[in-house]
Design brief:
Blueprint (H helix, E strand, L loop, with lengths): L1 H9 L2 H11 L17 H37 L4 H20 L2 H22 L14 H5 L3 H19 L1 H5 L5 H20 L1 H6 L8
Helix pairs in contact: 1-3, 2-3, 3-4, 3-5, 3-7
């Protein structure tokens, strides 16, 4: 998960899109001119390639989030690393749902379709290819190899079913009988009293050299 996030950040997709937006003709431009400056083929190919890579990375990120969430819940049910896995499961589910709720992947696929159309028109006007040895797919769905909506529903069903069926909070923190609770409180107070009594003895023991 962390590796996917770092790669998404390092590819600077947002900055590349902002640069593209700056050179796109504005809607409120004067209609007196019949010609407009449009982004060249090298810029369109660069942005389109980054959008394709971003879609692949986000798909991988969602898959990793789902698998890691299920694994953290499994460890919680086994009472292993409770605090760590509680925090991890919350962060992973949050990240997954934020990406799905904001339709990040769907937005990027729609953007690629628009870029593909513009790239085709620009290349017909003046061919200046920049990316060598790669053919831009006409259908991004075939390139990704999965149906985005069905894959999201499948992952969501897995996460919700696992969370509902395991009820790991009840397994971790079962209802404690009143008698057992009283005994636990008494033992805790006895431990505290003994620790206070032994405090002076422990402070007098030399446990090693002083570290500056």
């Amino acid at each position: 998960v962390e590796q996917c996030l770092k790669r998404l950040w390092k590819m600077n997709l947002v900055g590349c899109l902002e640069t593209l937006v700056e050179v796109i003709p504005k809607k409120n431009a004067s209609k007196a001119h019949t010609e407009y400056l449009v982004p060249g083929q090298p810029m369109l190919e660069t942005v389109a390639l980054k959008v394709l890579g971003g879609c692949k990375l986000i798909l991988r990120l969602l898959d990793c989030c789902c698998k890691a969430f299920l694994l953290s819940v499994k460890h919680l049910c086994s009472r292993e690393f409770i605090l760590l896995n509680t925090v991890a499961s919350g962060l992973l589910s949050r990240l997954w749902f934020v990406i799905q709720y904001r339709c990040v992947l769907q937005t990027l696929t729609s953007l690629y379709d628009a870029l593909s159309t513009v790239l085709h028109l620009v290349s017909e006007t003046q061919q200046t290819p920049y990316i060598q040895g790669f053919t831009f797919p006409s259908d991004i769905g075939n390139f990704l190899g999965v149906n985005i909506s069905s894959e999201a529903k499948k992952q969501k069903a897995q996460m919700l079913t696992t969370r509902k069926s395991t009820s790991w909070m009840k397994k971790l923190f079962p209802a404690m009988p009143e008698a057992v609770s009283k005994v636990g409180k008494m033992r805790k107070s006895e431990t505290c009293i003994s620790a206070v009594k032994n405090h002076s003895i422990l402070c007098a023991v030399d446990i090693g050299e002083t570290v500056v």
